[in-house]
Design goal:
The chain has 205 residues and is of the alpha/beta class. It has one domain: DHBP synthase. The chain is built from 7 helices and 10 strands. The strands form 2 sheets. An 8-stranded mixed beta sheet has the order 2-3-7-4-6-5-9-10, with helices on both faces. It is globular, with a radius of gyration of 16 Å.
Length: 205
């Protein structure tokens, strides 16, 4: 697998390729969110079931506006406090967006704390990204790990960003009835509750 410079990675993504990129957690494989063919290829690369939605990485919270998701005051409060960083915010999405990233009515959004990747997202727009490993396998921590994976379809190359720290992002799902911690990681339920209140069934509108 070819090692890509920043410019080569951007060019490959715009061409519709799937590209492996470093993040602030682990390496991921990415495709431009608004390129349906590339997103389909990403599912094939990962051998990932279509009913499992892909996370979306943004350059900043402003990018949320391009997705037309249900973005509540609680979602904005979490973004203000924890983005960029290892927090994925799961929100309801329109059918058009959900179709791009799997048979799901939600999207998981995150702004990574990684300068090189942020620059790629600025150049390419929001990216659909999943961890750079075989579906259900061990995440890749380095470009060499990525190159050792047996992919289900060709990957356009990998942008070498050194060794990732391996931290796991926390995942919070927001609904009109409240919120729940889907996965604990860098942030705990207590951290989230300090910003938007305790987990509950109270409507958040």
């Amino acid at each position: 697998m070819k090692l890509l410079s920043f410019d080569e990675a951007v060019t490959s993504l715009w061409r519709g390729d799937v590209v492996a990129v470093p993040t602030d957690t682990v390496y991921g494989v990415a495709a431009r969110l608004f390129d349906p063919s590339a997103v389909t290829r990403l599912f094939e690369v990962k051998s990932r079931p279509r009913n499992v939605a892909l996370p979306v990485l943004l350059a900043s919270a402003i990018d949320v506006q391009s997705l037309e998701v249900e973005w509540s005051t609680k979602a904005q409060a979490l973004a203000d406090n924890f983005w960029p960083g290892a927090l994925t915010i799961v929100v309801k999405a329109p059918a058009s967006s959900a179709a791009l990233v799997g048979a799901s009515a939600t999207l998981g959004l995150r702004v990574p704390r990684h300068e090189a990747l942020a620059n790629v997202i600025v150049a390419c727009g929001p990216l659909a990204v999943t961890s750079a490993n075989e579906h259900g396998g061990v995440p890749s921590m380095s470009a060499e790990d990525v190159r050792a994976v047996e992919w289900g379809a060709p990957v356009g190359g990998v942008m070498d960003g050194g060794v990732c720290n391996g931290a796991v992002s926390s995942v919070v799902e927001l609904t009109s009835r409240g919120w729940r911690l889907v996965r604990s990681g860098a942030l705990s339920a207590r951290d989230i509750a300090k910003v938007i209140g305790p987990e509950s069934s109270v409507d958040d509108q």
